[in-house]
Amino acid sequence: MPPIPSNRIRIVEVGARDGLQNEAGRVPTPEKAELVRALIATGVPEIELTSFVSPKWIPQLGDAAELLELLAGDLSDGTTFSALVPNMQGMERLLEANEKAVNTTGRRAIDKVCLFTAASESFSKKNTNASIDETLERFEPVAHAAREQDLAIRGYISCAFACPFEGVIATEAVVHVAERLANELRVDELSIADTIGHAAPGDVTERIGALSHIERATLNLHLHDTLNRAADCVRAGLAAGVRSFDGAVGGLGGCPYASTPGKRAPGNIATSTLVQTIEDEGFTAGVSHAALNCARVLAGDLITRARAGATA
Ligand code: HMG
Ligand code: MG
Q: Ligand 1, atom 31: nearest CA belongs to which residue?
């Protein structure tokens, strides 16, 4: 394999999870698999495939095990695949699905487990029916099982800048949760999430600076683009030393619990915007623009059909 250039930025494509969880209409599992195949073709190094959360809470992703089984033969060795897990019940479902979804080289579908908590108590309650402390307690056996199975661990911190219920979140709250994820749960990476797309570039500089003492976990930025300044926040992240960012194909997504009645939560930064920003700043993402455009068109078609189905 050729060496990875030193100016390479890692992009994690979260459209299949963060994008589809927020759609009122259901995308059929074979269409999700088709989207994932198109995303693999872009060359993006990591894809968040789905969630093993309660289907009562997020029915859109209730087909997680079926999706892995459908995709098993297509999961290339060069791409990392991850999925969200909220508790041990989700982890057991993931491990069972991973046993079944193995390709011809013996590769299991999922390489990384994504735990998710928040820097805001109100958001944590709304999103997981648990306090921040309770989510971290739930994660202990999940993290233990992940390590036993040689699965990497990502820890998301939602509302790392602002919360839809509490407003601006203090830096100390973010640092506290980040330290607990890194030191107690020993996550491999921390995904600092601007859940409602409130951050300005200066906030990114400040938060990343405040987290820079956490050396054992890679810092990742998960930006939503509400105020159309996610690209500026990427620039600030790059300048502050962040080398890993999430994007969603076509700018899909947004957390359902950050929405208000009648108003959808804003989407994630579009992967194409992310790639362009990274390249404009003199870095490389290793992603094919042409293949990304094909995936964007496919995602658009599939969402249009799902929305039409939801309103029919
Ligand atoms: P709960 O209702 O408190 O859980 O939900 P419970 O333990 O009382 O269980 C209730 C029912 O759910 C039971 O079934 C359980 O068996 C079942 P019943 O007995 O009623 O038939 N259940 C499950 N079923 C399947 N898989 C599971 C599971 N767990 C329980 N894993 C829970 C607690 C955490 C489960 C729930 O709140 C949940 O699933 N929340 C997930 C919400 C979610 O997915 N939000 C979006 C992802 S986070 C996000 O988007 C933010 C991010 O993008 C970063 C950012 O932008 O901020 C990552
Ligand atoms: Mg999100």
A: 90
Q: Give strand pairing partners of 246.
A: 12, 222
Q: Is 159 a catalytic residue?
A: no
Q: Classify 235 as helix, strand or coil.
A: helix
Binned at pLDDT 50, 70 and 90, residue 256 comes out as low
Q: Where are the domains of the chain?
A: 52-57+84-289
CA distance 270 to 129: 29
The Cα–Cα gap between 237 and 243 comes to 8
What CATH number is given for 52-57+84-289 in this structure? 3.20.20.70
Q: Residue 180 and residue 174: Cα distance in Å, rounded? A: 10
Is 35:295 a contact under the CB 8 Å cutoff?
yes
Amino acid identity, position 290: A
d(CA 61, CA 56): 10
Determine the Cα–Cα distance for residues 40 and 34; give it in Å rounded to an integer: 10
**92 SS3 class:** helix
What is the per-residue pLDDT across 211-245, written as a single tens digit (0 to 9) for each? 999 999 999 999 999 889 999 999 999 999 999 99
106 φ, ψ (degrees, to nearest 5)? 90, 10
Rounded Cα gap, residues 41 and 286, in angstroms: 11
Residue 123 is encoded by which pair of tokens? 């958001």
What does residue 95 show for φ and ψ, rounded to 5 degrees?
A: -65, -40
C-alpha 55/C-alpha 134 separation (Å) is: 20
Phi, psi of 153 (to 5 degrees): -130, 125
Tokens of 71: 């995709």
- Ligand 1 pocket test, pick from 53, 156, 196 with the greatest ligand atom count within 8 Å of Cβ, gives 53
Instruction: Identify the residue whose C-alpha is closest to ligand 1 atom 9.
Output: 54
Please state whether the predicted TM-score (pTM) of the whole model is above 0.70: yes
